[in-house]
Design brief:
By secondary structure, the protein is mainly β. It has no helices and five strands. The radius of gyration is 18 Å and the shape is elongated.
Length: about 80
């Protein structure tokens, strides 16, 4: 499903396209299961499909597009 916004009594407005991928791995070491993963998402202009470096939200005026990277390791029993 393509991202869009619905406001009562107004037609839907397409905000952006997006493409992404996820890569992960798991290994057992000393009886523990280690997992690690990374995700990448590009937000694209809905007309040209060019990558957006900045996006102005038409309703709030905010323009935060980039999330913050956080490295976390999870350990559980194998």
């Amino acid at each position: 499903m393509l991202p869009s916004c619905f406001i009562p009594n107004e037609p839907p407005k397409k905000l952006f396209n997006c493409v992404g991928m996820n890569v992960s791995r798991a290994k057992i070491e000393e009886g523990k299961l280690w997992t690690q993963g990374r995700e990448l998402t590009y937000y694209l202009d809905p007309v040209t499909n060019e990558k957006l470096n900045k996006w102005d939200n038409p309703w709030t005026g905010e323009n935060d597009l980039q999330g913050k990277y956080s490295q976390k390791k999870r350990i559980s029993s194998a």
